[in-house]
Write a structure and sequence with these properties.
The complex is a heterodimer of chains A (383) and B (226). Chain A has 383 residues and is α+β, with helices and mostly antiparallel strands. Chain A is built from 14 helices and 11 strands. Chain B is of the alpha/beta class. Helices cover 28% and strands 27% of the residues of chain B. Classes of the chains: A alpha+beta (383), B alpha/beta (226). At the A-B interface, helix 1, helix 10 and helix 14 of A face helix 1 and helix 2 of B.
């Protein structure tokens, strides 16, 4: 008789054992699914917010006077443009830094008033980065004009703006931002270097942190340590804003998960193991008879391991549903910051369908071996 | 067909070694119906399990058609049991979650033909269980359970049936019926070895062998004693 047929018949016969064993798998899977559903949401949301607020890391010359920096908004010191390329080539830099953009910012007078002329180089990403580079894409000979400057000079898209004796096409006038971007004029780095007569110089590298630090790590400490190794002539400032709150929330969740997961896995595995041992004991006589009928060790072990796999598959499906429902129902309440980003993750079902049967089979391995090594003669003599 | 040569079986226990078979010699010829009779604890079940390749003797040889059973690997012995031996137990040992026909089909050997569902159903019908084929053991009477167990033992058309107190839980009427079915198998050329502590089997057996303290007490007697 086919092993699976026997397994299903036995599952339906011993309903309590089946329900309790399935519950163990469901609990383990539900925990993982609910965690990864909310963690996935947290990660997406953090990334989105970080993108929204722009680059959150500013690498500036180490000699920068920070009082002047915060008063003016940019460094009065410069560094060679080559710095960014050296940094990008530094081993493992993209493990902690992402999306590097070199910039040069200087005050510049246009029509009797100061603006911040800002040159931006094309974004440098990790060699294996698949995502489109974020940030501005400015064509040579064009500028993007901040809201206040555009209003004052009555500039519109398609118009022109003269900077240092050279005419630039206005590619875009920016919407009001409520920041100093409103008095900025953005151009390509090489164009702005030409206007300012500062060829090959930059005074800032903008970057975004990779958001991949673990729960017990202080991001700024690591970022600074990495930078000190790669670029001793520079220092990094992190904009600790709302993204930080999300990162902290994620780190806290990771901490709890790191503590609870092994504990829960051990408890669930022990639970399955004990139920399987009880099942083996209950089926001692059945195993003895199957032996008498000529069933080999492989078939006996297969009966118990196949049962574990079936429990794993059922537990994975139910656990996925329960875990997703828990995440969707209670996730927004617990993780308020990322509430809107929480959604079911179908890919977790595939993972669960692979991992849960393997987990259940592993937990049932010792009981299966007990069944295999059980001496049928002893059992049959006991009757 | 089946031969025990100077077979001993000693069980180590916390209170010392217990000798269950003591230099036992016995020969069962092909087509014989033998009843082994003796009191509880005299080694009858040990003898039966050793004959079925399920209990390795401490010393001596158990051969079936000249083949030393315990010279085979455990896999080969399992295969040997599946193809050539049918077991019947006192407690029937039907699998509780399978119905009668499925219990019979448990013995189906993928390597053997004629072990399909039709043959199982036919065997059950021959044993008077046609209306009960889809009943689970809990829904069968004790007599019906034992007949189901006999059908299971017969499925692979074995040469030898080993029955351990097959009527120990049955009333005299059902006990006689079970022995009649075993006798039919025997008349069709099969060999039967029954161990029992009662005398019901005497009327059906070619030979009755008395056992005491792990050894055969006589060469056997009966209506066709050899």
């Amino acid at each position: 008789m086919a092993t699976l047929r026997l397994v299903f018949r036995e599952l339906l016969h011993r309903k309590l054992n089946f329900l309790l064993s399935t519950l163990a798998v469901v609990t383990a899977v539900a925990l993982f699914v609910s965690y990864f559903t909310t963690a996935g949401a947290a990660r997406r949301e953090t990334t989105r917010v970080t993108r929204d607020i722009g680059f959150n890391l500013r690498i500036i010359p180490a000699s920068t006077d920070m009082d002047q920096f915060w008063a003016v908004g940019f460094s009065d010191q410069t560094m060679p443009e080559d710095t960014i390329h050296r940094f990008a080539k530094y081993d493992k830099v993209f493990l902690t830094y992402n999306h590097l953009v070199a910039s040069l910012q200087q005050k510049f007078e246009i029509a009797g008033k100061e603006v911040i002329l800002t040159g931006l180089a094309p974004t440098i990403t990790a060699p294996d980065q698949r995502k489109q580079p974020m940030g501005y894409a400015i064509k040579p000979g064009t500028v993007q004009v901040g809201y206040q400057v555009a209003e004052r000079l009555a500039l519109k898209k398609g118009g022109s703006l003269e900077l240092g004796g050279k005419k630039f096409a206005v590619e875009q006038t920016l919407a009001e931002s409520g920041t100093d971007d409103d008095i900025r004029v953005f151009g390509l780095l090489s164009d702005v270097q030409g206007v300012l007569n500062m060829k090959g110089r930059i005074n800032e590298i903008k970057a975004i942190d990779c958001l991949c630090l673990t729960a017990d790590q202080d991001p700024l400490k690591i970022l600074r340590a990495e930078l000190a190794k790669a670029l001793p002539e520079a220092k990094v400032i992190q904009l600790r804003a709302i993204a930080d709150a999300r990162a902290k929330q994620r780190q806290t969740a990771e901490k709890y998960f790191a503590f609870v997961t092994p504990l829960l896995l051990v408890v669930c595995a022990a639970w399955i193991c004990v139920l399987a041992v009880l099942n083996v004991r209950e089926r001692k006589m059945e195993i003895g008879v199957l032996r008498a009928l000529g069933y080999g060790s492989g078939k006996i072990a297969a009966l118990f391991l196949a049962k574990a796999v079936v429990l794993g598959v059922i537990g994975a499906a139910v656990g996925y549903a329960v875990g997703s429902a828990l995440a969707l129902q209670f996730g927004p309440e617990i993780f308020k910051v990322t509430a809107q980003a929480i959604k079911a993750e179908p890919v977790l079902l595939l993972w669960a369908l692979v991992a849960a049967p393997a987990f259940a089979a592993l937990a049932s391995f010792i009981p299966a071996m007990l069944a295999v090594t059980q001496d049928p003669a002893v059992t049959l003599r006991e009757e | 067909m089946l031969r025990f040569e100077n077979v001993s079986k000693i069980y180590p226990t916390s209170r010392g070694a217990v000798k269950s078979l003591d230099a036992l010699d016995l020969e069962v010829k092909a087509g014989e119906f033998i009843a082994i009779r003796g009191p509880s604890g005299c080694g009858k079940t040990t003898l039966l399990l050793a004959a079925g390749g399920m209990l390795r003797p401490t010393s001596g040889r158990v051969t079936v058609d000249g083949q030393d059973l315990y010279a085979l690997s455990s896999r080969e012995r399992a295969q040997f049991r599946a193809c050539r031996i049918g077991f019947v137990f006192q407690m029937f040992h039907l699998v509780p979650y399978l119905n009668a026909v499925e219990n019979v089909l448990l013995a189906a050997n993928p390597a053997t033909k004629n072990t399909d569902r039709d043959r199982a159903a036919k065997l059950l019908a021959q044993l008077g269980l046609e209306p009960r084929v889809h009943h689970k053991p809990a829904d069968l009477s004790t007599g019906e359970r034992q007949r189901t167990a006999i059908a299971r033992a017969l499925l692979n058309e074995p040469k030898l049936i080993l029955a351990d107190e097959p009527t120990g839980n049955l009333d005299p009427e059902n006990a006689a019926e079970v022995f009649r079915h075993l006798q039919e198998f025997h008349r069709a050329g099969g060999t039967v070895l029954v161990v029992t502590h009662g005398t019901t089997a005497d009327a059906f057996a070619d030979r009755v062998v008395e056992m005491r303290a792990g050894a055969v007490q006589n060469g056997g007697f009966g209506k066709r004693s050899s």
